[in-house]
Structure formats: C-alpha cells, structure tokens
Amino acid sequence: MLIIPANSKFVMLCIAISLISATVIRLALQKKNPQKDYTELRQRIQSWWWMVGLLFGVLIIGVSTTIAFIGFLSFLALKEFLSITPTRQIDRRAIFWLYLSIPFQYYWISIGWYGMFIIFIPVYIFLIVPIRMVMLGQTEGFIKSAGTLHFAAMLTIFCISHLAYLLVLPTTHVEAGSIGLVLCLLILTQFNDVAQYIWGKLFGKHKIIPKISPNKTTEGFLGGLITIVSVSYFLGPYLTSLSSISAAIAGGLISVSGFFGDLVISSVKRDLEIKDTGNLIPGHGGILDRLDSLIFTAPVFFHYIYYLEF
Amino acid sequence: MNKFLQILFFVTVIKPLTFIILGLNIRGKSNLPMNGPAILAANHNSHLDTIVLMGLYPLSKVKYLRPVAAADYFMKNRFLRWFSLNIMNIIPLERKARKSKDELFAGCKEALENNKILILYPEGSRGKAGEMAELKKGIFHIKSLTRNVQVTPIIMSGLDKALPKDESLLVPFNCDVIVGEPVSKTNDSSEFMNDLKGKFQELSKLCLTK
Fold first, then answer.
1. Which contacts of B126-134 are long-range, i.e. CB under 8 A and separated by 24 or more positions?
2. Which partner for A282 in A43, A164, A199, B64 could form a disulfide, CB atoms 3.0-4.6 Å apart?
3. How close is the nearest chain B Cα to the Cα of A80, in Å?
4. A96 — contact with chain B (CB < 8 Å)?
C-alpha cells in the first residue's frame, strides 16, 4: 500500500465529494421531474464512479499496480483502434507484435529506464512492424497498413504510457508526490473538455472547425483555455513543483493539445463514418472517446515537466 | 464432475476470452432469449462464434445452451469428442450421413422439447471471412420440430479477424454482437427464410468493426 501524500489525498477527497454531489443532484432532479428520462445522465455519472473508483483504487494499492492498469488501458485502446480501422487480414500477425510490445513498454517504465521507454515504440517497434510485414510477403496495401499500425502504436501505446512514466519520476514536491503529477494532468485534461463544452454552450457562435466537429466554437475554445490557465495557476503549485507561472503555461499547453486530441479522434471517426469508437463505457462510448484528449495532453505535459525539472 | 468442469471452463476461459481478450460491442442484448425452446441463429465465420454466444449468458443459464455442431468435425478424435460433448454440450449433427430428416434432427428435437436454447448457424459452416453464405433451410426444419420455438437472429462481426478459419494464432479484436428481434413464427418456409435473411441484412448495418 502506498501512503498518499497530503495534497494529493485532499484533491482525491474533493473529487470524491464532487462525484457524490453529482449523484445527489441527479437524484434530486429525478425526484423533481419524475416523468423525464435521465438514463443518459445516470449512465454517465455511474461510469464516472467506475472510472474514478478504479483509478483511485490502483493509485492507493501502489505504483506497480497503477502502471499495470495504465498498460491495460493501452491494450483496450489499441484493440479498439484496430477493430474499427480496416486492416488486411494478413496484418494480424504484425498486430500481434504490437500487443506484445505493451508489456515491454510498461516494464521499461516500472524499472524507470527512461532511455528505453522513450525510444522503444518510435524506434524499435517502428522498425519491427514493417520487418514482420515484409516477412508476410503481401505488398498490396503495404503502405496503408504500415501507416495504420504505426499510428495506432504511437497513439495508444506510446502517448498513453507517458501517463505512467509520471509516476516514476523522482519526487520534487514532497506533499504531492508523483501522484500529484498524474492527478494534475487528469484533472486539467478532463476539466478542459468540460469547460470548452460549457463555454461553447453558453456563448458559442463562431464555428472553429466545422468540417470535423460542428459543435466546437472559438468561444468554447478560448473560454476553456482561459479557465484551464487560471485553474492551473492555482492547482499546479499545489500538486506539482511548478511555479504558478510555469503551471499556467502547462495549463495552456494542456488546453490546446487536449482540444486537438479530441479533434484527431473525431477525424478518425468521421473517416470511418462511425459515431462512437465502441460501447465499453455506458454513456461515454468507447475507451478512445474517453481518452482522446489525454492521448495528446499526456506526452505534452510530460515533456514540459521533464524539460523544466530534470 | 463434468458439470463442474463446464462451469470452470466457462469462468476461466469463455468469460475472460469474450470480455477481456476480445471485447464486445453489444446491441439489442435484451432480445436474447433467456428461456427455451429457442434458437439463436447466427452468422458463422470463426470458432470463436460459439464461445462468444455462450459468453453472453449468465453462469446460471449455461446448462440450457446447446450448440448444434458438425459431427464430422467435432467428433473426429477422442479428446475433441469428449470436450465437445461434455464441456461445450454440443448436439452433433451428421451433415454428410444419408439419413431421414427425423433421424438427423432427433437430437435437436429432444433438446427443444426440454426447453433448451439451440445455437445454430444457418449458413451450414464457416463461410469466407466477412461474407455471408447462402442460408440453408435446415433451420426451418429444426424450428418446426416442436411448437412455439422462438428464433432470434444474431449478427457477429470482427471475430473472423481475431481467429479466421484455418488459423491458430488468436489476435485480440473487439467484435460486434447485434441481437435482433425474433423472426416471425410463420409455417411457410420461404416466408421464414426471407424474414431471417432480411433481419440479418438489417443487423449487419449496425456493425462498428471494419
């Protein structure tokens, strides 16, 4: 069992309290308008309970368990991506190697081998995949398949694994611990999605990128950006060793990269003409629908911290 | 003993394989019949099809499930024969034997009369990956063996990627399982077959996997 540092413990408690309030508000709404259908809201909140419960559970058990858990998320995300994206039947033998690379990538993280963690997917897996494909010997559709497999590995294994590496960075803020970095990234990323949505709903007029997402507006984007920069200005120094100014910049990076992460997965879905990537999480869609922003914010936040502090 | 082994196999293999290694996008789960006599009519592309269909059911219902399977394939050696009959609980069907319909389908009839849920692939065998073969009329004969048999159409997609015909390496993929509403209870065979075919086509449109 890991002793959760004080600041992180307090933030986790706040999250638990806000989840309880969400449930209470939902029940009150239901009571007030009994004829209205709150199934989707109920499902969404219920799923949040599961996601937060699982995450906090593994964080409390310890670092190795959390790393294994994030590895499992990579597995689910990779599987989902390859299930909705067309590949040639023969590629399944190369895909097998992608799955095999997940335990290795997370093993490097668990022993804190930064050099291997940072090159394993972009160098070795990058080379191994086309080598395996050459051995399979089918040239028709080769480029497209190689591209699909590399894109999938980078998004779902390499990018997501940065979240796990935050946990093994040397502690620079004793009261928050390495968990503080993970909480900070997750809170800012999720809150950015919510803030952009709310600002867009309230003041949204000018569509920012209508071809990909008709619901995204300039007002939503800027409102989200300002909100996250301000939240990060105060939250950052509490959960990480960043100064207020550096934390505000981190907030800006998270807001912008999260916005694009969301759009990249949206473009993938548009290309495939599907609405959700799966239905693993009731009320949310698939795991990629949930992790879309995080796939981009995790490496950006990680390397910002790594550059400043190590 | 065999009952215990069957439950053990269900808990340690079928469930984890279906929900962790593979992973399902399920639609229309409430259409799944929980009581017999019923027939699950599904498309067939992979050995995993039966595993996944059984995995949809809670542990307490396993004893009602009876996959109808080709005797020439699943009874070909002693181990497979024991495993198919005792663990998977199949009803062997001798597709190549020259027998009368009554003899051929005797096992199915008995199972339906005992309120079992049959798993049946109307295409006859695993077709080409991702394609649907011509439906055979056997399903109509089987459904007509007793009264009030509910036939539920199910389309599965993506399993032929995870474990195609003639492959032994299992690669994880999500798959779609789309359960439709029961096929009409008509006594006219061509009307029945057309309804089944139409329902299959409708359900195929709801698949996510490519």
1. B126/B44, B126/B45, B126/B46, B126/B47, B126/B165, B127/B43, B127/B44, B127/B45, B129/A89, B129/B45, B129/B160, B129/B161, B129/B164, B129/B165, B130/B45, B130/B157, B130/B160, B132/B43, B132/B200, B132/B204
2. A43
3. 6
4. yes
> In this structure, is residue A102 part of a structural domain?
yes
**Distance to chain A for B41, nearest Cα, Å:** 23
Q: What is the Cα gyration radius of chain A?
A: 20
Pairing between β-strand B117-120 and β-strand B65-70 as defined by DSSP bridges: parallel
Beta carbons of B164 and A79 less than 8 Å apart: no
A162/chain B closest Cα distance in angstroms: 23
Q: What is the pLDDT of residue B127?
A: 66
Of the candidates A54, A51, A158, A58, the one whose C-alpha atom is nearest the C-alpha of residue A101 is A158
Total of domains in chain A: 1
Q: Would you say residue A19 has pLDDT above 90?
A: yes
Among A47, A277, A59, A73, residue whose Cα is nearest residue A178: A59
Using a CB-CB cut-off of 8 Å, the residues of chain A touching B25 are: 278-279
Q: Which domain holds residue A92?
A: 63-168
Interface of B with A (CB under 8 A): 23, 25-26, 129, 158, 161, 164, 167, 169, 171-175, 208-210
**ipTM of this predicted structure:** 0.86
Q: Spell out which residues of chain A touch residue B129, defining contact as CB-CB under 8 Å.
A: 89
- Residue type for position B166: D
Per-residue pLDDT tens for A111-136?
999 999 999 999 999 999 999 999 99
Domains and CATH numbers, chain B: 2-204 (3.40.1130.10)
Q: A272 to chain B: which residues are within 8 Å by CB? A: 210
Q: How far apart are CA B11 and CA B91, in angstroms?
A: 22
- For residue B206, the chain A residue with the least C-alpha distance is A274
Q: Which of B129, B169, B210 sits opposite A93 (nearest CB)?
A: B169
pLDDT in tens, A240-258: 999 999 999 999 999 999 9
The H or E element that residue A37 is part of is none
Residue A180's CB: how many other CB atoms inside 10 A?
A: 26
pLDDT at A245: 97
From residue A221, alpha-carbon distances to A130, A200, A215, B58, B88 in Å are 39, 7, 11, 46, 55
CB contact under 8 A, A280 and B171: no
- Give alpha helix (H) positions in chain A: 6-32, 39-61, 63-84, 92-110, 114-119, 126-136, 142-153, 160-168, 177-203, 218-239, 244-272, 287-309
Closest CA to B54 of B99, B80, B27, B88: B88
